[in-house]
Amino acid sequence: MQGLMMDYQLTLDRILEHAYRMFPHKQISTKLPDGSMHRYTYAQFYGRVKRLANVLRSLDVQTGDRVGTFAWNNYQHLELYYAAPGCSAVCHTLNIRLSPDQLAWIINHAEDKVVFVDGTLLPLFERIAPHLRTVQHYVLFNAERGLETKLPNVLFYEELMAEAGEAFDWTVTDERTAMGLCYTSGTTGDPKGVLYSHRSMFLHTYGENQASALGLIEEDVVMPVVPMFHAMAWGLPYSCTMAGADIVFPGSHMNAAALADLIAEEKVSVAAGVPTIWNALYHELKSNPRDVSHVRSLVVGGAAMPRALIEGYEKELGVNVVHAWGMTEMSPLGTVSKLQRHHRDLPDHEKWDIKARQGYPIAGVEMRIVNLEGEELPWDGATMGELQVRGPWIAKGYYKVESNRDAITADGWFRTGDVVTISPDGYMYITDRTKDLVKSGGEWISSVALENTLMAHPRVMEAAVIAIPDENWGERPLAVVVPTKDAGELSEDELRAHLAQHFARFQIPDRFLIIAEIPKTSVGKFDKKVLRHRHAKGELV
Ligand code: ADP
To answer: Does the pTM exceed 0.85?
Structure first.
């Protein structure tokens, strides 16, 4: 039709060009394996992305080919995030914490043509390589020639970069071209591939940068602690560059003390990670204070952020916590829990209650809750149902999976597998993942709510609740608790009394087991699959 808008393709090279034009002097800093800092500007980054695109071409990477990355969060990984899509290939981020078997399966399933390997992870990767069927080249960074390796056809990143030219014309002309591939971390089942397009990631980047979402700006110093293999580091590599923010990558230095140092030294204003990481950081900051006054948003997602931890950060450390929810299948951002004007005069404890929810949908994401019959349920803050979503950055199926009937409803909504309530003002609260709910005597018990309250106990460091089979009730909750270091004796009675203030009798676990550590998944969530398995084998007694 005449007079309509331009047909402008939403391809990621547009974000990079904008960043180069507008913010050439902004900084990307990485903590290197030896502990020193690597720093360069957006302008230097831009030149290297173009070189890398030429390198990919020289390795015969063609449109649609999958380029694997096996790496920590660092500048080379960011270069791959732009170079692979820039030459119409797919950046396939590999989760370094999966088992060699799982990784071999994923790489073969994705048919990666080239894999870029962080030299610091070489011994891990060498165990996988013999099982790979499609990879033609391995390219190592943070590694130099002379290094001994069992990998065949090894090339060295910096050597290839030195030989490559800096002139490259981006090749993507269609925004529906695939740009990224990420397998879910498999918390509740086998890993499944999610394939993002330029258009979906571009729109996700706009969505994430809305002020009511993460709203990154040029003034920010952003530290993505969430790994670049966990749902594309929650889109931060693209939203940071679009905003022109400085970026700080922790590399392999992921312990709480190192992260606390980086936050203080680099004056980080936005940091993003899972609750496990922020729990450890909180305890580190309490025992060994650092200057965290520049942090305006501590973004947390991937699992429920315990309310007590939100309170601890805000009350004791003056750090604003932004709780967000998403899924690999959603690129990943879905909801954000920020306060609105009508919350302004609430007492603090009510504000923290709101922040402990997963929050409202960011514009672009539609939500609904349904019962087992698929009927829509009201947003009344009490009725529980399965959360379903749709939007331009939500998967319509899994990579190379023919039937997605389990994942997508007949009328085109994505089934999240999360059981939630939604308040009348649109704040979603996750009561559980479908597979983690405890179904006891016909009633549902939320393991998340029990965990949250247990972790509010001052002498509890971590707590997980799983369903265990029970002859009378079908299932009963079992609590597994890790005390804080200086907790001393922590008795069952004390924990039971603590829960009794908030829960009905039937909801309180019959047993509380004290253990040294809760097993974690590859992205740092409580691994309830492992706990259930251990219990079934009689190991959890
Ligand atoms: P995996 O499915 O392997 O765990 P994802 O990270 O994509 O990998 O998992 C998405 C799921 O993580 C969501 O469906 C939800 O159950 C959980 N999740 C993500 N963010 C939150 C949050 N803020 N609170 C509670 N659960 C969350």
So the answer is: yes
Beta bridge partners, 182, equal 93, 194
Residues 116, 133 within the same domain: yes
In the residue annotation, 184 being an active-site residue is answered as: yes
Per the domain annotation, does 372 fall within a domain? yes
> What is the pLDDT at residue 187?
67
Range of the domain at 175: 13-28+38-212
Tens digit of each residue's pLDDT (9 = 90 or more) over 166-181? 999 999 999 999 999 9
Distance between Cα 325 and ligand 1 center (Å): 7
To test the pocket of ligand 1, the residue of 95, 185, 187 to mutate (highest count of ligand atoms within 8 Å of its CB) is 187
Asked, for residue 2, whether it belongs to a domain, the answer is no
The CATH number covering residue 141 comes to 3.40.50.12780
Judge whether residue 402 has pLDDT over 80.
Answer: yes
Domain check: are 448 and 371 in the same one?
Answer: no
Closest CA to 189 of 521, 464, 536: 521
Quick: pLDDT tens for 475-485: 999 999 999 98
Q: CA separation (Å) from 405 to 395, 402, 435?
A: 13, 9, 18
Q: Dihedrals φ, ψ of 340, to 5°?
A: -115, 175
Q: Is residue 409 domain-shared with residue 517, that is, in the same domain?
A: no
Domain boundary residue among 183, 212, 241? 212
Among 230, 307, 325, name the best residue to mutate to test ligand 1's pocket (greatest count of ligand atoms within 8 A of Cβ): 325
Sorting pLDDT into bands at 50, 70 and 90, what band is 372?
confident
Same domain as 78, residue 119: yes
In a shared domain, residues 407 and 523: no
| 343 phi and psi angles, rounded to 5 deg | -95, -5
What mean pLDDT do residues 413-435 have? Answer: 95
pLDDT-derived band at 92 (thresholds 50, 70, 90) equals: very high
- How many domains does the chain contain in total? 3
CA distances to 223, 347, 359, 382 from 259, rounded to whole Å, are: 9, 31, 26, 38
Residue 198: which of 216, 182, 174 has the closest Cα?
A: 174
For 7-44, the pLDDT digits (tens) are 999 999 999 999 999 999 999 999 999 999 999 999 99
Domain of 490, CATH number, reads 3.30.300.30
- What CA–CA distance (Å, rounded) separates 438 from 446? 6
How high is the pLDDT of residue 16? 98
Domain membership flag for residue 481: yes
Q: Are residues 172 and 43 both part of a single domain? A: yes
Residues 118 and 200 occupy one common structural domain: yes
Using CA atoms, how far apart are residues 92 and 34, in angstroms rounded to an integer?
27
CA of residue 414 to ligand 1 center, whole Å: 14
Compute, in angstroms, the gap from residue 483 CA to the centroid of ligand 1.
Answer: 25
Q: What share of the chain in percent tops pLDDT 70?
A: 99
Helix (H/G/I), strand (E/B), else coil: 101: helix
Q: What is the pLDDT of residues 175-201, one digit of tens each?
A: 999 999 999 876 666 789 999 999 999
Of 212, 244, 269, the residue that ends a domain is 212
